[in-house]
Structures are given as C-alpha cells and as structure tokens.
Automatic annotation (TrEMBL):
PANTHER family, A to Z: BON DOMAIN-CONTAINING PROTEIN (PTHR34606), OUTER MEMBRANE LIPOPROTEIN DOLP (PTHR34606:SF4)
Domain named BON: residues: 50-120, 129-197
Pfam families according to UniProt: BON
Name of this protein: Transporter
C-alpha cells in the first residue's frame, strides 16, 4: 500500500508540473517556456534577470549558513520585482529570523516577506496538493475576461493550502484574480501581494 501512495504522489506531481508550466524546464524547452511568459510580463528584462539571480543567491545563502542549512530545503524562495517571499514550514522561529536577515542583505533585494510557518516540514503529499492548487489557480486566471489582462502576469505560490498572489497588475486585474483564486478547491486563504500600477 505505501508504494501505491508513492506512485499516486508521483503522478500528481507530474500532472501539476505539466499544468503549472514547469514541463518546459523538465522536457528541455526552458528557453521557449520562459520566453512566452516574459513576453507578457510587465517587469523589464533587467528586473526579470535580477529576480532569477536573487532566487539563486538566496537559496545558496540559506544552504551555506550553518544555523539554517539543515532546514534550507523546507524554505521556498520566490522573488518578484525584487521582493522576496519566503514560504514553507520550518521547526523554529530563530531559523526564520536568520533566513530573513541573510536574504535582506543580498544585492538588489527591496524587501523580504516572511510567511514561514512552524512545525514539521510539509510532506510530499501536501506539496503535491499545493502544486495541484497552483495549476488549478492558473487555469482559473485564464477565465478572467478583462481587456489587456494576461494570466502569466500573476505569480502564484502555494504553501499548505495558502495561496500567495504576486505581480504588477492594475487594481481591477488584482481584484478579479483574487476573486477567481479564492474559489479554487483546496485553497484555504488567499494572500494579496500584488503591486498595483
């Protein structure tokens, strides 16, 4: 029975990766997949590059710190418009504070939003469920009928059923996105981290 559970988790993970747009990275079309998203992104090319660099630098900084290293894999780092969002579940508040401090001092980081929670790291089943929520939320955003709105402009992060929405949007776009995502099955709460134009 445990092996059946592992197979189901693997299937859910693969489906979620395909639906969230991570498939191009896995199957070799990373450049094409990233190019399509960048075409509609309201961030300029330098900011897109900075966000990628910040994520790599933050992940490296967490793994190099002896006080964080053992829990670094439980911390998810997302950078959008040079704002860093930390999500995941870790064992101690001291680790969260240390992670925020390390990342705050990285080059080009404007601010750090600490949404880490405390407890045992999320298991594979919960992580797969979060990926599935992201895929359903992305699909829900494609149903928004506002002029000039493109679903790829919204960055969606999910952790333990809590969904974080990031992006450079207009007020109506942000409101519509929040409303759509709020009703996606499995979403416990939506956190608005949009920057409005």
């Amino acid at each position: 029975m445990p092996s059946l559970l592992k197979v189901n988790v693997c299937i859910i993970l693969m489906l979620a990766l395909l639906l969230t747009g991570c498939a191009p990275v896995i199957f070799g079309g990373a450049v094409a997949g990233a190019g399509v998203a960048a075409l509609y992104d309201r961030r300029d090319a330098q900011t897109l590059f900075d966000d990628q660099q910040i994520q790599f630098a933050a992940a490296a900084a967490l793994k190099q710190d002896p006080r964080i290293k053992s829990q670094a894999d439980a911390i998810s780092v997302t950078s959008y418009h040079r704002t860093v969002l930390l999500t995941g579940q870790i064992e101690a508040e001291a680790v969260a504070n240390r992670a925020v401090k390390r990342i705050t001092h990285l080059a080009k980081v404007k601010r750090v939003i600490n949404q880490l929670t405390f407890g045992a790291p999320l298991d594979l089943t919960r992580q797969a469920e979060d990926l599935y929520i992201i895929s359903r939320a992305k699909f829900a955003l494609t149903q928004i009928g506002l002029p000039d709105f493109n679903a790829t402009r919204v960055k969606i992060v999910a952790s333990d059923g809590v969904v974080y929405l990031l992006g450079l949007v207009r007020q109506k776009e942000g409101d519509a996105a929040i409303e759509k995502v709020r009703y996606v099955p499995g979403v416990r709460r939506v956190v608005n981290l949009f920057e409005y134009q």
